[in-house]
Amino acid sequence: MAGNSIGKEFVVTTFGESHGRVVGVVVDGCPAGLTLSEKDFQEELDHRIPAEPKIVSARVEKDTAKILSGVFNGFTTGAPIALTVENKETDSSDYEAIKDLPRPGHSDYPARVKYGGFNDYRGGGRFSGRVTVALIMAGTIAKKLLSRFDVDVLAYTSAIGQVRADQKFSAEEIRKNRYEAPTRCPNLVCGEQMEKAIVKAKKVGDSLGGTIECLALGLPVGIGEPLFDALDADLAKAVFAVPAVKGVEFGAGFAASELTGSENNDEYLMNNDKVATSTENAGGVLGGLSNGMPIMIRVAIKPTPSIAKEQKTVNLKAMENAAITVKGRHDPCVVPKAVPAIEAAVAITLADHMIRARLIPKVLKEH
C-alpha cells in the first residue's frame, strides 16, 4: 500500500509535486454539516510564507485553494472533499543541470534508486516542502472541526539555530504574536534575533534549522488507541510526514531520561473541580492516551539542505566523484514555513482520533 494517506476515520490523501501542475488533497470522513468555503483556507495558506523576503525563497506562490467536491450550499456533505492549489511560479531549469548529481541532505539519491529514475526530480518533486500546502488545506478543515468541540491547536517557532526563546508562552501570546514575526516566534524581540541569524547564514551561502513547539488545548481525557495507534505515536507519525523534521518529543522529552521518577512524575491535584497535574512533563499523554492536560510537542527541523556552498557528491551517470553548488530559489531556513504544517499535522491526527472515539459525530448539528 502506498504511503500517501493517513488517518482511519478522518482520512487525508495528498498528491502533487513541487513543479507539477497542482498540489492537492482529498479529505474523506469529514462529518457532514461543517460550514466550509474557499475563504477558510486563504489565511492558513498565507501563513505558510513569511512576508519578509530576506528569509524566504524567491519562489512566492500566491496559493488559492479550489474546492472540487464535498461541499454544497456552504456545508460539507459527508462526501470526500477534494482541494487543489496550482503551481504557477515554477522554474525547473536549474534542476536539469544537476539531475545526475544528488544534492547532499536531500532525498534525490534514495528516490532515484527506489523509483528507477522515473521520479520527478524538479525541486525535489514529491519530497519537496511544497507538498505541505496539501497538509495545510486538510489541517484547515481539521482545525475548524476541532474548534466546534473547543479543541485548539497552536504551533510556533521556539528556536532557530542558536537563538532560543527559552520561555513558556500563554495561548493568548501565541495567538497574538506568532504571525506578527516573520520567524513565527511569539517573542518579537527574540524573533528579530532569529531573523538576523537567518540572514547571516544566507550571506555565507549556508542555512539554519530550528525548533517548533505545538500546543493542543482542550482535548478530552482518554483520546488514543494503544498500543500501535497510541496518541503520541500517531502524532509523531503525522509530524514526521512534514519534510525536514528530524526529531519529535513530548513534554520533557529526552530531558526526562536525566530526571528521577520523583522529578519527572506529574503529580495530580484538583483544579476548579477538575483533575489536573502540577507539572507537564508528560506532554499531555500517558500510556498513549490524552490525560486532559495540554498536549506539548517539540519538533526539530533540520537546516535547509539546498545551500550555495560547494559540496561533495557523486555523478550517478558517470559513477564518479563530483562537486555540486546548488543554484535556484531556496529558503535559508524552512522553520517559519513549517509552523502551519506542523499545526496541520497535529490537528489532522486529533480530528481523526476524536471521530474514532465518537466524540465528533458523523453529522454536525447546526449552532
Features:
five-stranded antiparallel beta sheet; 18 strands; 26% helix; 9 helices
In short:
The chain is an alpha+beta fold and 367 residues long.
Explain this structure to me?
This protein has helices at residues 39-47, 93-96, 108-114, 132-147, 171-177, 188-203, 231-240, 261-264, 335-356; strands at residues 5-6, 11-16, 22-28, 66-69, 71-72, 75-76, 81-86, 152-160, 163-164, 210-217, 245-250, 268-271, 274-277, 285-286, 289-290, 295-301, 311-315, 320-324. The chain has 367 residues and is an alpha+beta fold. It has a single domain (5-356), classed as 4-Layer Sandwich (Chorismate synthase, AroC fold), CATH 3.60.150. The strands form six sheets. The protein has a five-stranded antiparallel sheet, covered by helices on one side. Strands 9-8-10-16-11 form a five-stranded antiparallel sheet. A two-stranded antiparallel sheet has the order 5-6. Strand 8 (152-160) and strand 9 form a beta hairpin. Helix 7 (231-240) packs antiparallel against helix 9. The mean pLDDT is 94.
